[in-house]
Amino acid sequence: MESFIIPEGYTPQLSLYDTQIGIKTVKDFFQQTLIQRLNLLRVSAPLIVTPESGLNDNLNGFERPVSFGIREQEDSPAEIVHSLAKWKRYALYKYGFSYGEGLYTDMNAIRRDEDTDNIHSLYVDQWDWEKILSKEERTEQKLREIVATVYKVFKKTEKYMAIQYDYIEEILPKEIFFITSQELEDKYPDCTPKEREYKIAKEHGAVFIMQIGDVLASGEKHDGRAPDYDDWSLNGDIIVYYPVLDIALELSSMGIRVDEAALLSQLQKAGCPERANLPFQKAILEGKLPYTVGGGIGQSRICMFFLRKAHIGEVQASIWPRETLDYAEAHGIPLL
User: Fold this and answer.
1) Signal peptide location in the record (predicted)?
2) Which of 87, 142, 175, 196 is most buried (CB neighbours < 10 A)?
């Protein structure tokens, strides 16, 4: 069970029942604080989309969506979303949001090709949020401002949870550290991207790694990103050091979204220029959709972090390999 980390001396501090109370406590406080700081309105969102809409998140480009045929529509195909990264921008336009306003929603997805471990599951639950910007605000300075605002929500939530539960101590640093993926490669040229994330997160406690998706000087990418939502020069991941597992833990991915020029450039780099003809992508190129910033924040990830759990299966119900279930039970870690 190399993929299952059992922290030395780890014992769950909460029963299954009390864990459910803890999950609700985290989620209620975090989302209320987030929507106040970012001026967001909760909206309903789809679980399924059609392939031809171009709305599904292609992630790294090789993950297979869960798909099925719709009987009443002559078995035409539909897909369960990987995320709502593209849909949110379209929804801001369709629902009539104005500059400075934003939306958020509960996003649920199934990622059938995910390799499961302590922090990865087949089931994904996150808050997807999106907010309208002006074209002039598509800058690194604006991105940093918004990242700092989101990070303050993490800090405030940790402080709140430390008051509610005696066993929880505040470990997040006062400020989040910013670094580009190229600067990170230059700093640790002999490490893999994940090893770099671990080193920088452990050094600073919390870090925002910027500019993810394009090829680095080494000829490799730090990580994959779909070419048609984030602007690869104006995006990044919020990663924290998690001492329970001694790992770098990604809590959020976010960024300023592509404009017309960035979309065409990134589609070309990704080798899929034909996607420019899909409805969502055409709407961007024709200037119909607003300029936006947005991101996803893992609900189970933050519950795991703030409740100091060792496995994501302690805070979400999913499907695990039989050996994972047996291994967890043998070490006193109950998975939901």
Assistant:
1) none
2) 87
Write down the catalytic residue from 57, 79, 125, 197: 57
Q: Which amino acid is at 97?
A: F
Residue labelled with tokens 């910013």: 178
Annotated active-site residue 134? The verdict is: no
What is the distance between the alpha carbons of residues 326 and 333, in angstroms, rounded to a whole number?
A: 10
Helix 299-306 to helix 140-164 angle (10° resolution) is 50
For residue 253, indicate whether it is catalytic: yes
Residues in the chain: 336
Residue 177 confidence (pLDDT) above 70: yes
Residue 135: exposure state from Cβ atoms within 10 A (0-12, 13-18, ≥19): exposed
- The two tokens of residue 193 are 């991207």
Region 183-208 average pLDDT: 96
Question: Is residue 237 annotated as a catalytic residue, yes or no?
Answer: yes
The predicted model scores a pTM of: 0.89
Q: CA–CA separation, 18 vs 330, rounded Å?
A: 21
> What tokens were used for 332?
């006193």
Number of alpha helices (DSSP H) and beta strands (DSSP E) in the chain? 9, 11
Domains of the chain: 16-331 (3.30.930.10)
Assess whether 126 carries a catalytic annotation: yes
Tell me whether residue 98 is one of the annotated catalytic residues. Answer: no
Residues 7-22 have pLDDT tens digits of 888 888 999 999 999 9
Selecting among 211, 253, 299, 300, the annotated active-site residue is 253
Continuous segment of H or E residues that includes residue 86: none
